């Protein structure tokens, strides 16, 4: 590896890059005609890479404006390891400015935070990757293995017009890639230890629940609202939705979750054994992140949308509902059987979106490099695996046989309700966390 000491550093520009990225309104509504901003943001990212000498490839993933940018940095010529993919998505969920204390697309830097939609999900990681890509190129750095930087569209709507389209139609973009790192992992959780001290645990994502959006439909005989009716589509769907919404799926502990629970138990003394009678109650003693962690113990099915009728005195012929299902690895068949029992014979179901779960093991050279990078900048810390209750573009890359992890390192203040910031009002990320993460990610990429 070569790097000149007078080369501008990633930490010097990462905050400005994240702030600028936020100022691009890349709101993904889930509808092609109303989603905007990805092309403009991707073009800017490409210009920032080309400015320091990269040859970039801009690709629209199946629809106009769904912009993606790729750049490669060659690795050591004597390396026999495959390329490492560093991926981040440019789109964000919509935000209503009236609800925020700052404009959600201002990229305001104040009170020690970078504010705006995407600050957490996931323009902080995009900014870190972009800053480091620029630093490495300017400095003439040769990493141990080839690095592939990918800045992608449409993750917030499941990646149909982003990573999944690219994997299906342009697998050549990922040629040689064997491992990948992306969002929602590497952030810290501070716990109280049995000796009265604190320990920061850095959660590396090794698993994701499956993401499946399900439509329920009931058909019935249309008629006047004043008549007696033996069947009613609204009633059938409403009853099915209520049964699903109130249902508790069985507790199932995967390998990643079991390792996480064992590590936290060792540090805290909490009884987090899978068969502990109050496991979920004990988990909530870990603070706000328990909402994310607790959701990895069971399948979930949360009703989110209802649609029926067009007039108060007309019995509709059809009623529909949408349910957001998140399914643990290995549970698809059992989950579907349970759903069929809950909805009953008069309601049909179909998958609107169906993305498989994913799980890998917490071992190997890449995990060792993550651990070493964290410890180099937080010597008293510990890395632990965990499962994400949501999903990322890793689901697409896994189809190519790529081993995927979530590793976007952030050292977070203990008091920060990090879970609430995902898709939340006044989304923001600490400046110090982004600077810390850039240093850790630099160490990781130079030793991976």
UniProtKB/TrEMBL annotation:
CDD domains noted in UniProt: M20_yscS_like (cd05675)
Question: Keywords of this protein's UniProt record, alphabetized?
Answer: Hydrolase, Metal-binding, Zinc
Q: Which organism is it from?
A: Gordonia oryzae
Task: Indicate whether Nucleus appears among the record's keywords.
Answer: no
Limits of the Peptidase M20 dimerisation domain: 206-338
| Gene3D superfamilies in the cross-refs | 1.10.150.900, 3.30.70.360, Zn peptidases
Pfam families according to UniProt: M20_dimer, Peptidase_M20
Q: What is the lineage of its organism?
A: Bacteria, Bacillati, Actinomycetota, Actinomycetes, Mycobacteriales
Q: What is this protein called?
A: M20/M25/M40 family metallo-hydrolase
Could you give a GO molecular-function term held by this entry? hydrolase activity
Q: Which family does it belong to?
A: Belongs to the peptidase M20A family.
Cofactor(s) this protein cannot do without? Zn(2+)
Against InterPro entries, the record matches this protein to: ArgE/DapE_CS (IPR001261), Bact_exopeptidase_dim_dom (IPR036264), Peptidase_M20 (IPR002933), Peptidase_M20_dimer (IPR011650), Peptidase_M20A (IPR050072)
